[in-house]
């Protein structure tokens, strides 16, 4: 069971990672359609479509996690006392390097690029809509003021002052909400990169012998910290 569990446990870990990353990417695309293309979203973002996407996400994650089965091996160590390690296949360095670069592209670079694009377009669309709304509100207020100026000459100054304050307050509130949305979307991408980046980059550097395979001292604690950071984002 040792060799089987060595591959199975790491396969399930990669399956969970792939599924989580694909889900976050799919959510960003769904938000893009809902905000930037609301009319198209009525046909794209439906319950039946969501079920298909969930099924497709799991099927794709199952396929994308397969390469770990070729890289993870059980190795016997020790002379007097035999033991077994479940590690990457150090003897097949080319396959090991390919897998770590593959995971870096799959988990970090690809999803980060997609989420950055979708959330940037969402932020731009929200900001553009708010600018158009502010312009329309200002024009409407000016039209009403001109009509009121003819009918209520005596009270126009007070009315204009009250409306101007109301419009300014509304614009400030809208701007504050937009900024909060933008900050939230930026935080999603930044936290994703911060949580996954160190672990994946560390794996690539280890595969290319930039960092030692045997971890001692601060490198051991650094690796543990990187794993915990990745788990926090799942």
Question: How would you portray this structure in words?
Answer:
The chain is mainly alpha-helical and 234 residues long. The chain has one domain: Up-down Bundle (Rhopdopsin 7-helix transmembrane proteins), CATH 1.20.1070. 81% of the residues lie in helices and 5% in strands. The chain is built from seven helices and two strands. It has helices at 2-36, 38-44, 47-64, 68-71, 93-151, 156-207, 218-232, and strands at 72-77, 83-88. The protein has a two-stranded antiparallel ribbon. Helix 1 (2-36) packs across helix 2 (38-44), helix 1 packs antiparallel against helix 3 and helix 5 packs antiparallel against helix 6 (156-207). The longest helix has 59 residues, at 93-151. The radius of gyration is 27 Å and the shape is elongated. The model has no long low-confidence stretch (mean pLDDT 83).
Strand content: 5-15%
- Output the CATH class name: Mainly Alpha
> Any idea how many domains?
1
Shape designation: elongated
Give the SSE order as H and E letters. HHHHEEHHH
Largest pleated sheet? 2 strands, antiparallel
Which strands sit side by side, in order, in the main sheet? 1-2
Would you tell me the structural class of the helices and strands? mainly alpha
Mean pLDDT: 83
SSE inventory with pairings:
Blueprint: H1 2-36, H2 38-44, H3 47-64, H4 68-71, E1 72-77, E2 83-88, H5 93-151, H6 156-207, H7 218-232
Antiparallel strand pairs: 1-2
Helix pairs in contact: 1-2, 1-3, 1-5, 5-6, 6-7
